[in-house]
Amino acid sequence: MTKCYLFIPMLLLSAALSAQTPTDLQFLSSGDVCAGVGIGYDAWSKYWEGDVRRENGNVGTVSRRQFSAGFMLGIVNRLNVHIRVPYITTHASQGTLNGQSGLQDLNLNLKGKFAEIRLGKGNLVLGGNLGFSTPLSKYLVDFAPLNLGFGTTNLSYRQMAAYQTDMGLYFGARANYTYRSNVPNIHRDFYYDQGNAYYLNEINVDDVFDWTLAAGYTDAHILAEIDFNAVNTLGGSDIRTWEPGFPSNDMDAATLTGRFDYYFSKSKGLNFSVTGGYTLSGRNAGQSVFGNVGINYLFSLWGKGGAVQ
């Protein structure tokens, strides 16, 4: 995930690989595997410097592509593990900054279903996700807005709840807290931040809280969902006037995201997933348009198989 302007869309794209993701309440049966690849893209030409929206001709349109590979495994029916590895490239349409490319962060997630309660003409489903990520390469962190990722090791917990009617309509809410380590070994030993000078090559960053409201429809062959997402960094500074972002910036945003999955068969086989979204408002974040396409294949290693909805 990018540490500065591109922080928000990368949070959302990080889960958009397979038909079952760490952020939903779909589960694979014991022994089932959903493996796939995904291509993501986001771009912005306007960004918020603090709460002031600007357009900077020195960088023009900043874009990034994400190529991901990963899989989700059903350990038991109510417990899935998800592993994903992204390769990132960044580019600025104007100016002299060179884009970066390379492996970003290893992402591990353990998703569980706590309870499924019959309520009226539907089911109330409660679950959670424990996440971990850490850098896979020594990419430049202090290189906004073209850096590949945070450079931090992260531990997160996401609480999820959804009500799914017998007709296939569902409504959900998710809340996630991410603990972030310091940014170690930046490529300089002095920096100025929040009114203070630091003779260090390590940056303290604040944790992140994000939440989502979702509504959608699912059946044996499709899933269609629309989400409102809010991300809030729990502290930090504003980008200084006409300067690049810094890892300790306070980065907040509200986004609208859509998702569509299609399953070619009821249990095993090929499926694809498409997501897309737009940043509605923000602070020290780019006003991005972003999207992702994933192609996945579901098969069994053991057991009877079949995805658990």
Walk me through the structure:
- There is one protein chain.
- By secondary structure, the protein is an all-beta fold.
- It has a single domain, classed as monomeric porin ompg (Porin).
- The chain is built from one helix and 17 strands.
- The chain has one helix at 7-13, and strands at 32-44, 46-49, 52-55, 62-76, 79-92, 101-103, 105-118, 122-135, 154-165, 169-180, 191-193, 196-198, 208-218, 222-233, 252-263, 269-283, 289-300.
- The strands form three sheets. A twelve-stranded antiparallel beta barrel has the order 1-4-5-7-8-9-10-13-14-15-16-17.
- Strand 15 and strand 16 (269-283) form a beta hairpin.
- The longest helix is centred in the N-terminal third of the chain and has 7 residues, at 7-13.
List keywords for this structure.
single chain, 309 residues, elongated
Which CATH-level-2 architecture? Beta Barrel
The class by helix and strand makeup works out as mainly beta
Sequence of secondary-structure elements: HEEEEEEEEEEEEEEEEE
Low-confidence stretches: 1-18
Spell out the CATH superfamily: monomeric porin ompg
What is the overall number of helices?
A: 1
Strand order of the largest sheet: 1-4-5-7-8-9-10-13-14-15-16-17
How many E strands? 17
